Each structure stands twice: as structure tokens, then as C-alpha cells.
Amino acid sequence: MLRDGLWPYLSGYAIIKIKGRAQEKCINLACARGIRLWDIRKVSDRFLIAKVELRNLGALGPILQRVGCKAEVEMKAGLPFIIGQVLGRKGFIAGALIFAVALYVLSSFIWFVEVKGAREIPDQRILAVVAGTGIRPGVPKSAVDPRRLEQAILAEVREVSWVGVTINGTKLTVEVAEKRLAPRDDLITHIVAAKDALVEEMILLAGVPVAKAGMTVRRGDVLVRGYAVRDARDGGAVRGDRHTDGFRVVDARGIIRGRVWYEGLATVALREEILTRTGRKASGLGLRFAGHHILVGHPPADFAGYEEQRERFGFPLKIGNLRIPVEAERILWTEVRRVTKIRTRDEAEARALAMARAELGLRLPGGENPLVQREFITENKERGTVTARVIAEFIEDIGTPRKAAITESDFIAEPENGENGKGES
Amino acid sequence: MVLASRRRFNAGRDLARALDIPVDVVLDLPRLVLLGNLQVLIENHRGIIEYTGERIRVSLPSGELRVEGSGLVLRRISLDEMLIEGEIGSIAFQTAGGHTTPPSSGREEAQP
User: Fold this and answer.
1) Which of A224, B13, B39, B88 has the most CB atoms lying inside 10 A of its own CB?
2) Contacts with A48 from chain B: Cβ below 8 Å
3) Per-residue pLDDT, A317
4) Among all residues of chain A, which has the CA nearest to that of B56?
5) What's the mean pLDDT in A336-355?
6) CATH number of the domain that B57 lies in?
7) Which residue is closest to B109 within chain A, CA to CA?
8) Is there a contact between B111 and A40 if contact means CB atoms under 8 Å apart?
9) Across the interface, which of B51, B76, B112 has its CB nearest the CB of A24?
10) Is residue A422 scored above 50 in pLDDT?
11) How far is residue A417's CA from residue A424's CA, in Å, rounded to a whole number?
């Protein structure tokens, strides 16, 4: 196929017209000499037309002479001539040139900017930095200095630990590796009240006192403020100071002791209806179907009231993989009876006190003995109740550190009496 | 003459069968591949005797082949193979001892 069709086409061939009487002889001879003729066509009685490769055209001459034929070249064809024709067409050449030049020129610009590898950082942020350096689709490649762009991105985007800028064709690829930032330590510590309390004494180690001894504070109130100083003098730093971005942060430190109240409260009625178990019991069987109880047995009719206890037993029924959602359960009924209990005043007081103390005990931090413990009993005649209130007072460390973002209000001039505010009491 | 060639053919055919090789190779016979009436490929030819658009006479090792039809074109020709295209009407053999004219002198020149 290549030999027959494509090669002659690529190398060029001639269409020749052979005249004379011994045309057959001519074909045979050419064939014997290895000159390929093809598409031989008898056009009329007098001549035939054949195709011959250009390189064999010269060799054909002697054969023709020998058999007494004459030949003339009708036309030359094949790729070389087509190229020749094409080259003759100015407009075509101009178009092709313009195309090539346009392709070359346009390929020397950046047309796409791509960001790779950014997970946390939005691509837009990096693209904004890229745009900020003057690089946007349409700038010539020569205007882009990948190393400088890398530096710019590294400087602008703090969360980036590595940047690689590559230009591939018309695409600028920014590859970034994010760094895991340690949580920014631009917080300041204040001391706030952990509980409602009466401030008893303050031992201030650092910070600006807000509360004073004798002040009543509520839970969450700031007791001592930390502060920040813009003028960071080296050497003037105090223990615990931190230097952050051009200013010094002093966290509040100190012990604030306050009087804290704990209260236990209980109310007991003089006349009360309660349920008591009589001790009679009965049991029965029940069924459970798809989570619903289906009662089979009944509690005895003479039970005044009852408590019910159910207990599953046996295994769920199964047929193959099909689980039948029926389960058996055992039911235990306990009879209860409503009883009206009448207490004397003393009984009620004692019970209320005991309950109030128990409740207080649950709330106490434990350990220390109370500074003071007071007990009050009040009676509500209308409702027939006795209420006991037990109050215990403790002295506790009520200060708890709380971190907060540094705001403008945290900046102060250097405190008058030095950082070590002395304890007030 | 005809009988002699017939006998030779039979002997050669038997030999070819016995040795399991193609008969055409043993007997130096032409091989024709006909594609409908549109194309005929002739292998093992000995040149062209006559060529017109209506009739092509091809020299064979023994005799000649006459292809008749219309619009006959020699699509390609090489020393041992030729491809004729066109509307083929008939193909006829004429053995060397037959009544047709012997191959023209062009054939001898084609076989140096």
C-alpha cells in the first residue's frame, strides 16, 4: 500500500502520454527494467496514459527510443507539486504566517492562574496576592519572576510554609503547602470571679485591680485585669511577661479570697400523703410485641394500687433470618397504699433541717470547715409547711483566670506603682 | 501436444499433492484472482501482448490469457503480477499450441 499509493504521492509523480505503435512492448520493457508504471489507461487507439514516479522519468527515455515510442509529460502531481502550488498562493502563506505568529505571541502571555494545594486558605486569598503583584491573565510571561512571586506570597500569607511558582505554557501554577499554625498567643489573662462572693482579701501579683476588699462581686465579674504596654522596653520585663508583635502583655496573676455563701433549703409539710408498700406482691406473664407491652396477666383486683416491674426472659423467636418480634416478659406487681402522714411541728422541723443540711452538703466544696453556719426555720401556717434554711460561709479563692483577646482597652500606660501591685486587704 | 501437457500436468499435480505444496508453483501456472467482474489479479505472467481499453492479452508461461471487457485499465504492473480493473466481460485461455498467434516478440525482450 505504501509503495503503491502513498510513496509516489509523497515523492511526486508524472502523468505521461505514450504515443507510438509498440506501446505494449514499452510497458513490458519498463516493467523488466524496474520502472514502475501504474494506472495505465488506453485513452484512444493512438496513445495511452500512465503514471510514473518522477525519479524514473529519465530512465524511461532510452526505453521509448528503443521501441520507437514518443512520450510527453501531461502533468506532474503529488505532494511536492501541491506544496509548490500552495506556496504560490500569497494569501494562504500570509494566513499561515499570521497564525503561527499569533500562536507564538499569544503563548508568551499568562492566560491562567491556578492555585494548588491550598486546603484551609481560600484560593482567592492567594490569587489576590498574585494579582497584587501585578500578575493577572494577560501579562507577558517575561514580566513574571516566579522567585519574587514566591517571596511575595510567603510574606503575605502567613499560613503558607512553602510556595512553588511554575509556568507551564500559558498557565501559571502556584503550589502551596500550608503550615499548621500554633494558636496565636495574642490572648490576655484576666482574673474573674468564679462565684458570687464578698471580696475578703486580694494578693495581687500582676495586673490592674478592679475589685477591692469588701466589694460584693458576682460570678464572672473581672477582679484583676491583665494589661498590655505598647512601649516594650527590654529589661523592664517582669516575670511572666510576654512580648508579642511589638508590645508587652502582662497577664493578671494573684490570689483573691472571698466570702462565699452556700445555702441548703428544704420544706416539709405537716400533713403529707405518701405511698407505702404493703408488702403484698403478685406476678404474671406478659408479651412484648415490637416494643409494645401486651398484658396477658392482670394485677390482683384487690390491690389498692401497684407498682409494676417487668423483666424480659427467654430469647427472641427466630425462623431462619426472620426475627419474630415477640418476647415474653415476667411482670411483678407490688401493692402500694396511699397513707396520710401527720407530723408534729418538731418532727417536721427536724426533718426539714436534716434535708436542708443534706442539700447544703451536696453543694459544699468539702474539706474546709465553714467559717459560720447559720440555720433558720420558718413556718407557713397557711400551707401547713415548715421550711429550713441552712447557710454556710466559707473563705475561698474565688479568682479564676480567663483568657480573652487583646483589645484596645487593654493597653495602658505603665502602671503607676509598678507591675507588682501589692496585696490589698 | 495437448495430451503431453495434460500428462505433465497430472504428474505435477500428483507430485504437488504428495509433497503438499501448491500446484501453481510446481507447474509454473498463472494464478488468477477475480473480484467479481471488476478486477482481476494475474500472478506469474510474462508480459503484455496487446493492450486496448476493450481487450488485454497477457502472455503466460504456456500460452496466453485474453481478458475482454470495457474500460480496462492496467492499475499496476510488475514483473510477476498485474492488476486489471474495469468491466470484465470474459476471460479466455489459449495454450501455446492452440490456434491463436504466438506471443509477440515484446515478450522475449521483457525477459532478459
Assistant:
1) A224
2) 51
3) 67
4) A24
5) 85
6) 2.60.40.2000
7) A29
8) no
9) B51
10) no
11) 13
